Amino acid sequence: MLCMSCKLGNTYSLLVNDSSSNRRLVDKLCLSVHWKLIPICWVSWKPPDRGYIMMNTDGSFLQARGDAGVLGSMDRYNSNMFDQVIKECSAHHLEFQSLMRKIQEEGLDIQTTRNADHFGAVIHHLSLIHNKRCLMAYVYNRVEIIQSLRWKLGPVLPQEIQEKLNYSEEEFFKNHSAALESYMSELELDLTVDMVPPKDPYIHVRVLDDIGDVLLSDQSPNLACHSMHFLKRTDAEQFISQGLMEELTG
Amino acid sequence: MSSYYDIDDIMMEDEFVSVVFQVAANGVGLLDPGAETNCVEQGSKVELPFWLSHELQLRQAVSVNIPACFNQKTRKEIQADAACVDLRNRCPYFYELGCKIAPLVGDRTIGSFLLYAFTGRYKEVLSKAHSAAIAVAPKFLTLFTKEETHLYEAARSSMAAFKKWRLGGPRFERASILGRKRKPND
User: DNA replication complex GINS protein PSF3 N-terminal domain: which residues (chain B) (predicted)?
Assistant: First the structure.
C-alpha cells in the first residue's frame, strides 16, 4: 500500500492510491483517507462483435492505436468520472431547490405554476434523471460483463481482469459465484460446461502453461508445459477457456 | 423498444438538435452561451441534446427543428449515390434519431427518406462485408452509421463462422475475454 501524507486544509490526511486492495484495507481499519484518483487513460478501440464480450487487457494500452482494438469493452472502473457526475447532480439539485423556493416565496402554487422558474426547475430535474440513467447504465453494463465472467472463466479471475474491478464489483463477483456454486451443488450438475453435446467424451489437448499436478475426475496427470494428454472433455474445458491448454484436432 | 440501460440508446439521445424556446426559463444560463443573464429568453434558439428537447417538447416549452442531417441537401446526395454519403460524420445514429424525431417535427417524409437511404446502402454494406480482406481496415467503414457498422460486423462474423464450420477446427477456444495470446506479465 502506497501512502503519502499531505496537508489538506489544517488537518493532515492520508492520500492513498485508489485500488480494491487498499479500499478493503481502509474499510477494515475504519480509517478516513483521501483517495488519489486514478488518472484517466484514453485508449482507442474497436467494439467487439455483437454477442461477444471482450476485455481491455493491457495490450491495447501498450499499443493504443485504433486497429489494436481487439479487446475493448471493459476498462478499469472509472471512479473519477463517476464522482464528477455525482458532483454535477448535486449542483443540479441545488439549483432545483433554489428555483422551487423562489416559486414558493412568490406565493404561487407549485403544482400549477408555469412560469420561467418552473421551466428552469424542469430542466434541472430532467438533467438529474438523465445523469441517473447514465450512471445506472454504466454500472449495469459492467455487472452484466462481470456476471458472464463467472460462466466463462470460472470462480477465479485472472489478475489482469481483477485489477479492473472496483471493490463492490469484486464483492458482486464473489457473491454471484457463491450463489451459482451452491445451486450447482444442489443440482449435482455443472452448468458452466459446453451446451453442445460432445461427439466423444475425451479429447486430445496440449498444455500451454505449467499447471502441475491436478486431480481430475478420472485421473491425476502431471500437466507440465507442452505435454499432451487425453482428457475428459468436461475436465479440459475450464483450462482451455482460461488459455492454459489448447485442443488438438485432426 | 430500447431498454433503460442500453448504452447505444443513451448515446443516440445525446445527439444535439436545435430548438426554439416557446417560454422563458430561469437558472439555466449554461444552455445558451449567448445569454447575458442566467436564464434563457423566450424565442431564443438553442442546441439541446435530444433527451432534453424531447421532454421539453412534451411540455410544450420548446419547438424542435429538423436536424441538418435530414435536410434537402442530404436528401439530394442520398438520391445521387446513397452508398457514398458519409452519414457517420453527419449523425452516427442517423436511423435511430430519424425514427425518434419524425413524430416530433411532424414531417411525414422523414420515414420514407430513411427507408430509401437504408435500402440504398444495405446491399453495399453486405457485399463489402463479404468481399473485404480481413487484414485491411477498410476505408469505407468510416462512412457507416452505428447501425450499419453492426450489420457489417454481423455479416463478417457469420462469414468467418461459415468458413470455420466448413474447414473444421477445435470446438473449444480460449475465452475471447482474455484477448490475444500473450502473457499478462509481458
Answer: 5-56
The residue among A105 and A197 whose pLDDT is bigger is A105
Q: Which domains are present in chain A? A: 3-68 (no CATH), 79-187 (1.20.58.1030), 202-247 (3.40.5)
Pairing of strands A11-17, A34-36: parallel
Q: With an 8 Å Cβ cutoff, are A119 and B24 in contact?
A: yes
Burial A100-128 (b: 16+ CB within 10 A, else e): bebbeeeeeeeeeeeebbbbbbbbbbbbb
Cβ of residue A237 closer than 8 Å to a chain B Cβ: yes
Asked if B27's CB is within 8 angstroms of A99's CB, the reply is yes
Q: For A99, which of B26, B55, B153 is closest by C-beta distance?
A: B26
Contacts A196 to B, Cβ<8 Å: 171
Question: Looking at residue A44, what is its pLDDT?
Answer: 42
Q: Are A56 and A75 in contact (CB under 8 A)?
A: yes
d(CA B105, CA B69): 14
Q: Given a cut of 80, is residue B9 above it in pLDDT?
A: yes
Dihedrals phi, psi of A165, to nearest 5 degrees: -90, 150
Note the pLDDT tens digit of each residue in A64-99: 333 322 333 567 788 888 899 999 999 999 999 999
Domain covering B1-65, topology: Ribosomal Protein L9; domain 1 (3.40.5)
Chain segment A4-48, per-residue pLDDT in tens: 333 333 444 566 666 666 666 666 676 666 666 544 434 444 444
Look at residue B157 in the predicted model and tell me its pLDDT: 85
Q: Does residue A186 surpass a pLDDT of 80? A: yes
Subunit contact B177:A54, Cβ cutoff 8 A: yes
* Nearest CB to A49 within list B157, B170, B180: B157
Across the A/B interface, how many CB contacts are shorter than 8 Å? 134
Among B4, B9, B177, B183, the strongest candidate for a mutation testing the A interface, having the largest count of A CBs within 10 A, is B177
Average pLDDT over residues A98-109: 88
